[in-house]
Design a protein that fits this description.
The chain is an all-alpha fold. It has a domain of 163 residues: MFS general substrate transporter like domains (Growth Hormone, Chain: A, Up-down Bundle), CATH 1.20.1250.20. 75% of the residues lie in helices and 0% in strands. The protein contains ten helices and no strands.
Length: 284
């Protein structure tokens, strides 16, 4: 990423001018899209481990339980497009991120024996928030870029989404592993087993896999350790979503909603990012 940034500053013309990063609406919009995928992939990844490995649900059952995430997203994007056109991207994006945060808070109530309804409702709220953020984020990123840089801006949106998913794997997996290790390490199990055995068990439990060789008390402890680590990851993702929602409310401005024919011709022919004719004027 650093090498790409250096290359963009020296290339003539650059694929994505670094001056575009000075636009807070575009930059915060990209951050919101990354946060969106950070939360979404975190839920899908760790709830799948929770259902398949920890609870032992068959694959078909786990897919049905996660189905509200996909079903609700079908209507979320059109709703997001409608709200963006009515109230703008700032309110839409900040409220949507708060929906994502509230859904993560709702998922913190799950336990090994949680009923389906306790997961389905937060899944629906999460899907609605994620779908609306994607629509508002696209408008913030692409709508804030000059016409001749629309393609590069779209690429930046896709990159932000993928980056959020990659960070989810790195950050939240570390949080879950640390939570599991701390809970198992402070128990009588860690004191009674060899270090190598305790580490191997902690690594397995961080993936929701409880070794069958454990006795009943240790099995219950391991299950609780994974659920506790999962809750820790949900807290981190929720804090990130709420923090970015506040940033959106403060820094994001609604980009110009249209470009007239003369402006498009001037921008396309000039190809000079950062010139006065290419500046997108935000509106409150």
């Amino acid at each position: 990423m650093a090498a790409s940034g250096i290359r963009s500053k020296t290339a003539c013309p650059p694929l994505l001018p670094m001056s575009r990063f000075r636009n807070p609406t575009l930059s915060i919009g990209a951050l919101a899209v990354a946060t969106n995928s950070f939360a979404l992939f975190g839920v899908i990844r760790f709830l799948s481990l929770f259902l398949l490995n920890l609870r032992g649900e068959p694959g078909l059952n786990a897919g049905v339980i996660l189905l509200p995430l996909s079903a609700a997203s079908i209507i979320a994007s059109p709703i997001g497009a409608l709200t963006v056109s009515k109230i703008g991207i700032r309110v839409t994006m900040s409220v949507s991120l708060l929906l994502v945060g509230s859904s993560l808070f709702g998922l913190m109530s799950i336990t090994v024996t949680s009923a389906y309804l306790g997961m389905a409702i937060p899944f629906v709220i999460l899907a609605l928030g994620v779908g609306m953020v994607m629509t508002a984020g696209a408008e913030a990123i692409v709508g804030s870029a000059p016409v001749q840089l629309a393609g590069a801006a779209g690429g930046r949106q896709a990159t932000s989404f993928q980056l959020g998913g990659a960070l989810c794997t790195a950050v939240l997996l570390s949080v879950v592993s640390a939570g599991v290790s701390s809970r198992l390490g402070s128990s009588e199990f860690a004191e009674s087993e060899a270090v190598a055995v305790a580490v191997a068990v902690a690594v397995a439990v961080a993936q929701g896999i409880v070794p069958t060789s454990l006795n009943a008390a240790t099995t219950a402890l391991a299950r609780g350790a994974f659920v506790g680590g999962l809750h820790d990851a949900l807290v981190v993702a929720r804090c990130v979503a709420i923090t970015v929602a506040v940033g959106v409310a403060i820094f994001v401005r609604n980009p110009k909603g249209y470009h007239d024919v003369d402006e498009i011709l001037v921008e396309t022919e000039s190809g000079l990012s950062g010139s006065p004719s290419l500046t997108t004027t935000p509106t409150a």
